[in-house]
Amino acid sequence: MEKVLSCFRRSPEAASRLICFPWAGGGSVHYARWGTILSGSIEVFAVRLPGRESRSRDPFFRNMLQIVDEVLPLLLPLLKEKPLALFGHSFGAFTCFAVADALKRRHGVEPVHVFLSGASAPFSAIRIKAPKRSDQSDGDFLRWLTSIGGTPPELLENPEVLKLFLPALKADLHVVENFSYGKPDVPILSCPLTCFDGREDVPHDLQAWRDVTSGEFTVRMFDGSHFYLKDPENEKILLDFIRKSLEASEMDYL
């Protein structure tokens, strides 16, 4: 479990757990540290995908099913112990949703809340028409990466670091660009679903996510672009919202 799910602070006294899925090319550290910020009220686990951090020698996944099949068995025991929520940003929003969908379809269980950030629903027109980036030349790819912001300039200017970073990023984009999911006739989920996004990011069809759940649907917008959640003030507001949402879920869980 520790190979795939990173937890900086184990909190047996926590009333609920939050499982976080990385953005494309991302590791587990950014989210794992949320467990220290949330001060034990929520136990945070960050998904660590192959090809990065302690899994640098593991081959990248090539499709969404591989991610789902690895993560799902680890979450089932956790779901039996206490309320569990899922969070994902950008590429992580798709992997987060794919896991929630598989939990419901295969096992008839679901998280108490799903938080999706910086991504259109997979069946929305905006997402389907989005240009594919994973097959671009490194030059074009880096120009696009620079345009969306959030990547430290010192990383983009360091050829040795880029040599390590770009393969993971492109591998993750390959997964999401080849992930298809049709608009459901009826909602697959019944739990609350919240979408977050940056006001200055490229437009995302957040409202389309409403079709995947019969539960409460909420949209929260933040100042900033694609990586709005890296801003300390935005992060504080975001985590406070998640904390309050899970406190409400705990009451329903009981």
UniProtKB/TrEMBL annotation:
Its EC number is 3.1.2.14. Keywords: Fatty acid biosynthesis, Fatty acid metabolism, Hydrolase, Lipid biosynthesis, Lipid metabolism. Transmembrane segments: none annotated. GO terms for biological process: medium-chain fatty acid biosynthetic process. Residues 17-245 form the Thioesterase domain. The keyword Lipid metabolism applies. It catalyses: (9Z)-octadecenoyl-[ACP] + H2O = (9Z)-octadecenoate + holo-[ACP] + H(+). GO terms for molecular function: fatty acyl-[ACP] hydrolase activity. Belongs to the thioesterase family. This is S-acyl fatty acid synthase thioesterase, medium chain. The lineage of its organism: Eukaryota, Metazoa, Chordata, Craniata, Vertebrata.
